[in-house]
Amino acid sequence: MKIKEKEFEEIIKDLKAIALQLGAEVRFEKGDFKGGYCILKENKVIVINKMANLQRKVMILSVALKELGIDQIYLTPKMREIINEMTES
């Protein structure tokens, strides 16, 4: 699936909603790090480098959501395909 640049913002919004559904907070921070899923004081957190490009942000969110476990929740076929494609890259 080819994703257009302008679609990435909407995809990020949808991925953030999925993360919230799974009980994880999504934070965009500055710093020298790649980003990903972690547990901070018993809270599920996905940290994304604010300076990363949109495609990288989608990839980090997708990988983190896979780690959280998306098999037990409903995702639209399009979102499931995006997550699967981004985690295969």
Task: Describe the structure in your own words.
The protein has helices spanning 8-21, 54-68, 77-88, and strands at residues 24-29, 35-40, 43-49. With 89 residues, the protein is α+β, with helices and mostly antiparallel strands. It has one domain (5-88): Zincin-like. It has a three-stranded mixed beta sheet with strand order 1-3-2. Strand 2 (35-40) and strand 3 (43-49) form a beta hairpin. 24% of the residues are buried.
Approximately what portion of the residues adopt beta-strand conformation? Answer: 15-25%
Radius of gyration (CA) equals: 12 Å
Number of H- or I-type helical stretches: 3
CATH topology: Zincin-like
- Outline: globular
Strand order of the largest sheet: 1-3-2
User: What would CATH call the class?
Assistant: Alpha Beta
Question: How many independent structural domains?
Answer: 1
The description of the largest β-sheet is: 3 strands, mixed
Number of distinct beta strands? 3
Terminal Cα span: 12 Å
- CATH architecture label: 2-Layer Sandwich
Helices and strands, in order, run as HEEEHH
Q: Summarize the amount of helix as a percent range.
A: 40-55%
